[in-house]
Amino acid sequence: xxxxxxxxxxxxxxxxxxxxxxxxxxxxxxxxxxxxxxxxxxxxxxxxxxxxxxxxxxxxxxxxxxxxxxxxxxxxxxxxxxxxxxxxxxxxxxxxxxxxxxxxxxxxxxxxxxxxxxxxxxxxxxxxxxxxxxxxxxxxxxxxxxxxxxxxxxxxxxxxxxxxxxxxxxxxxxxxxxxxxxxxxxxxxxxxxxxxxxxxxxxxxxxxxxxxxxxxxxxxxxxxxxxxxxxxxxxxxxxxxxxxxxxxxxxxxxxxxxxxxxxxxxxxxxxxxxxxxxxxxxxxxxxxxxxxxxxxxxxxxxxxxxxxxxxxxxxxxxxxxxxxxxxxxxxxxxxxxxxxxxxxxxxxxxxxxxxxxxxxxxxxxxxxx
Length: 369
Known about the structure:
By secondary structure, this protein is of the alpha/beta class. It has helices at about 40-50, 85-95, 140-160, 175-180, 195, 200-210, 235-245, 275-280, 295-305, 315-320, 320-325, 345, 350-360; strands at about 10, 15-20, 20-25, 55-65, 75, 100-105, 120, 135, 165-170, 215-220, 250-255, 285-290, 310. The protein has one domain: Aldolase class I (TIM Barrel, Alpha-Beta Barrel). About 35% of the residues lie in helices and about 15% in strands. Helix 9 (about 295-305) links the parallel strand 12 (about 285-290) and strand 13.
């Protein structure tokens, strides 16, 4: 019953064929050097997941401008000096037969104050979280520079040997901030009504495709809703997806913490989000789904819902060989929790990532001792 997970899939614009329907979800590893250089532990982390059978490897979020850095230990792709370490990742992933995609990112107002003490965003509105800094509103020139930075980062990805890029338009970061009525209170051409709030993310998507041409993979990750008031609704997102579907994107990637969950905004709406998105897209763009998927049966559910691709996140931290074991009929042997001792060594996790997991109970399962 698992065979559908292992059928190849050809992306519609680039023509790149993915070896199977399974991808590594993009996950920050908190392990790069202070200047954004990728470390050997991060390279090996991704190489092992590719060797374990994941057909597509989407990297950790990589900042396109230093002022948009989101985390301590984040990858950088804002300058050519990062090309050597970016190449190491692409080469390691390709050597295992997987498709390598660089996720390009700007945190906007969600930057960690430890790395960006004075963030910028669409408007001078703090995030709805404790002790959030109030960002300054971006000027017109900064907006155009940001769009150009995404395009330049995508070009670097291709120089470094990646098959393409995923644009991070989800999880409250800068592209979502422009789309959201909570974070975007502008009254110019970059904000206000829904049409103008869509302008920046659509401009980024167009600029990235123009920068890399049709031979490169370009995907776009989005969050269907947000909890803020006023905030993004599913109806808003469906309009954005219509516009994105008209662009030359190879896939869309819905960002969900739990694939089976209903609405974030309406607790009585228990409908899964992905089928609603599939209905809106009507096959115009392939869809990748994600969210607390652990077992082969759970991985098949998005395909049953007519999504095309499935990303594994937390379970891939615990079980690097998930695809290989499932394909070999060894699903009963899947490791669904990190070992309580030496989990970083057993599962090939960069030490800073492992320490962060251990310090945050409930994020990733840890087996009892």
